[in-house]
Specification:
The protein is an alpha+beta fold and 240 residues long. The chain is built from 8 helices and 7 strands, in the order ααααααααβββββββ. It has helices at residues 2-30, 34-46, 52-64, 68-81, 85-95, 109-118, 123-146, 152-177, and strands at 180-183, 187-191, 200-205, 209-216, 219-223, 229-233, 237-239. Helix 2 packs antiparallel against helix 3 and helix 7 packs antiparallel against helix 8 (152-177).
Length: 240
């Protein structure tokens, strides 16, 4: 009993501290004291509490300080927690200040269509929707078998939606599992192999988002949105 009360009190104190730190961080941000605002927001993350608003506010603080790599990193983290138009808008503004302007490989119309559907909700929402539809399907089928015949069109529609949501959930999950990060060094060379003796392929700069494909020791293989790939040292990169 005492242990339960202690856990409840600890949780209450944690929530109270989070609210106080968040409010104080907002006050400091409003007074343009971005350094101290960052300290308060980071303190909330150190408590193990993460949400899109904290990362969004941290992104704004770093943007105001012209720390573009950190601003982009925090906006990207915010979007991983929740899709938000303001966050995306600020991320796009921050990207305008980066050196590298990468042209994304064009997608076929059905790829764009599929991607836009996946982006409607986060992975958890799609998974919950899938489970609800599966349970509805099972209940509906049970009624149809054991009680009286129901409309087959409704049954087939639920079945189709269940399969579709299952596919969307899987695609969304695969997307969230993709290893990505932001370049934090002002300028680095991308090599053809995990050694500085290999061929210099091209240079990239801070703030650029890359995908991590492989790792050998201190070297990671990255891929850009335009399809170019190569090797860089891991200390130039911060994973999302």
């Amino acid at each position: 009993m005492k242990k339960t009360i202690f856990i409840i009190l600890l949780s209450f104190n944690s929530l109270f501290a989070q609210e106080n730190f968040f409010t104080k961080g907002n006050e400091l941000y409003a007074n343009q004291d971005y350094n101290n605002a960052i300290i308060y927001y980071d303190s909330i993350l150190e408590m193990g509490i993460e949400n899109w608003k904290i990362y969004y506010n941290l992104g704004n603080c770093h943007y105001k300080q012209n720390n573009i790599a950190n601003a982009i990193w925090h906006y990207e983290k915010s979007l991983k927690h929740k899709k938000n138009k303001k966050t995306q808008y600020n991320l796009d503004l921050a990207k305008l200040k980066t050196v590298d302007k990468i042209t994304i490989l064009p997608q076929l119309f059905y790829e764009k269509w599929w991607h836009s559907i996946i982006e409607l909700f986060n992975t958890k929402t799609w998974q919950i929707t899938t489970l609800i539809l599966i349970w509805l399907l099972l209940i509906y089928k049970s009624i149809d078998i054991y009680f009286y015949k129901l409309n087959k069109l409704i049954l087939n529609t639920i079945l189709l939606l269940s399969v579709l949501c299952c596919l969307i959930s899987f695609s969304s999950y695969k997307k969230t599992m993709k290893k990505e990060g932001i370049i934090f060094s002002s300028s680095i060379t991308v090599y053809s192999a995990p050694t500085e003796k290999s061929t210099n392929l091209f240079s990239i700069h801070e703030g650029l988002k890359v995908q991590k494909n492989d790792q050998i020791g201190e070297w990671i293989n990255i891929k850009l949105e335009n399809g170019n790939s190569g090797w860089i040292k891991e200390n130039n990169y911060k994973s999302l």
